[in-house]
Design brief:
Layout: E1 2-3, H1 26-45, H2 49-52, H3 64-67, H4 75-79, H5 83-91, H6 95-108, E2 118-119, H7 128-134, E3 139-144, H8 147-165, H9 171-195, E4 200-204, H10 205-210, H11 212-223, H12 229-241, H13 261-268
Parallel strand pairs: 3-4
Antiparallel strand pairs: 1-2, 1-3
Length: about 270
């Protein structure tokens, strides 16, 4: 994730849980209904996807959905086998994509002025310099996790989405491709950490899962944001409504995709 300084202009304050549909203005309610109808097609095409990454008009979404409007998003190779496009994207500097990102966010906050934005997408690790160039006061939170678990999870994610849009998918090839792509991303992130003057915080995945409210409260303290009981209560209400296994448990293993822990160790060896 990344954010701008709380005193900066043209940014919005983080909100836990978004807005309630019934509390939204009439125009927003119409957009909410339309968005839900559009997203319903994702559930029809890939029923298993909501066990991996639930999506909804009032749920947080990753920034790859924004940069897709600049035709510069990993979203395309995730759903279609377009390695030439992904190679081009990996060689790009991502600056145009994040310039559009900034404009897009300013448009979103046009009628809801506030002081802080918080963004999230694992794919950001491939575009960190462009993010800093666009948001110079950005601060980053890296959520660390066992690479073997990451690869198994992302392989499942990639295979489910690719199968929704293709009749011919090599599951093992998809898994190996994403394993190397995320290993390259981790290497880029570690290089960024060594050279950046931006604030970089670490949050281990297991710490977040074990006690998400305490983990977020700790981040607020480190970032100099004000944490209070109201925020804790709103976050707990959101967690109660959106439990991790709400739509079924996401089950995955390396063996499902012809991978072994030694494959992951070799792929990620250069990132240490």
């Amino acid at each position: 994730g990344f954010s701008r300084d709380p005193n900066a202009t043209n940014v919005a304050r983080p909100q836990v849980g978004g807005i309630a549909a019934e509390a939204a203005p009439t125009g927003d309610k119409r957009h909410i209904r339309k968005t839900e109808q559009m997203l319903a097609w994702v559930h029809r095409l890939a029923p298993a996807f909501r066990t991996i990454h639930p999506i909804g008009a009032l749920l947080p979404q990753e920034c790859i959905a924004i940069t897709a409007h600049a035709f510069a998003s990993v979203e395309f190779h995730t759903t279609f086998n377009v390695p030439g496009y992904q190679g081009w994207l990996d060689r790009s500097d991502h600056l145009d994509a994040f310039r559009l990102h900034r404009t897009f966010v300013q448009h979103l906050q046009r009628y809801r002025q506030a002081s802080q934005w918080v963004f999230k997408a694992p794919a950001h690790i491939h575009a960190l310099p462009a993010i800093v160039a666009t948001y110079p006061e950005a601060r980053f939170v890296f959520t660390d996790r066992d690479p073997a678990q990451v690869v198994a999870s992302i392989a499942s994610h990639g295979v489910v989405l690719r199968n929704a849009f293709s009749d011919c998918v090599d599951n093992e090839a998809v898994a190996r491709e994403w394993m190397h792509w995320w290993a390259d991303g981790k290497k880029a992130a570690e290089q960024f950490r060594k050279t950046t003057t931006s604030t970089v915080l670490d949050l281990h995945y297991q710490t977040l899962i074990a006690d998400p409210i305490a983990a977020v409260a700790s981040l607020y303290e480190q970032l100099g944001w004000h944490w209070n009981n109201e925020l804790a209560q709103r976050m707990q209400a959101f967690l109660d409504e959106n439990q991790q296994d709400k739509y079924g448990r996401h089950r995955y293993s390396l063996a499902q995709f012809g991978l072994h822990e030694r494959d992951v160790e070799q792929a990620f060896a250069a990132t240490k």
